[in-house]
Amino acid sequence: MINYYFDNTNELKPFTHELEANDNTLPPDNALRVEPKFKDGYWPCEKNGEWVLVEDHREKTVYNIETKAPVKIDYLGEVRDGFTELEPFDFCKWDGTKWVLDNDTKNESIIKNNQSLKNALLNEANEKISILLDAIDLDMAEDGDEEKLKNWKKYRILLTRIDTSDINVIFPTKP
User: Fold this and answer.
1) Side by side, which strands form the sheet with 2-6?
2) Average of per-residue pLDDT across 15-23
3) Residue 125's closest CA among 170, 165, 158, 166?
């Protein structure tokens, strides 16, 4: 004879373990003498004196539909409201049933990246121009420095004309 124990401190009363029972005794309050059935994706829980199968997603990762943050499930039962097993992707939002591309967020990110790239390229051009001007002003120019200076100045002008709000912007090639 075997006692099949459940956790009666958990509202779902999940199966925990089994132990040999003493002959001619009743099962304890937290055990049944009926063997639980097991099925992939489910866990046996005691309900009204019998075992019922409850969804078991423990150790699976779900995602918060507001923050997209991953969370490991540590409970039995259905996935809680506000979470999904569907993995989010870049620039997505939850539409109530699935993740969909959020073009506004994607475009905002592209524009922000365009502005950062433009600023970095302008800084580089300013540095190159400054060094070339110093070399020329101090009579330390080498062959081709004046042509390099002219090309970097043209490049800088082209950069300043870039509209970073254009998500399909093409930056000029460095000299």
Assistant:
1) 15-20, 2-6, 31-32
2) 94
3) 158
Cα(68)–Cα(92) distance, integer angstroms: 9
H-assigned helices in the chain:
103-137, 145-160
Q: How confident is the model over 24-31, as a mean pLDDT?
A: 93
Q: Could you write out the DSSP letters of every residue in 24-82?
A: T-PPPTTEESSPPP--TTEEEEEETTEEEEEEB-TT-EEEETTT--EEE--SBSSPPTT
**How many angstroms separate the CA atoms of 74 and 95, rounded?**
26
Interhelix angle for 145-160 vs 103-137, to 10°?
150
Give the integer Cα–Cα distance in Å for 165 and 163: 5
Nearest to 25 by CA among 49, 51, 1, 50: 1
Confidence at residue 23, expressed as pLDDT on a 0 to 100 scale: 86
DSSP H helical segments within 1-79, as ranges? none
Q: What residues contact residue 97 under an 8 Å CB cut-off, 6+ apart?
A: none
Is-contact 87 62, C-beta < 8 A? no
Rounded CA separation 169/33 (Å): 72
Q: Judge whether residue 24 has pLDDT over 90.
A: no
> Can you give the pTM of this predicted structure?
0.72
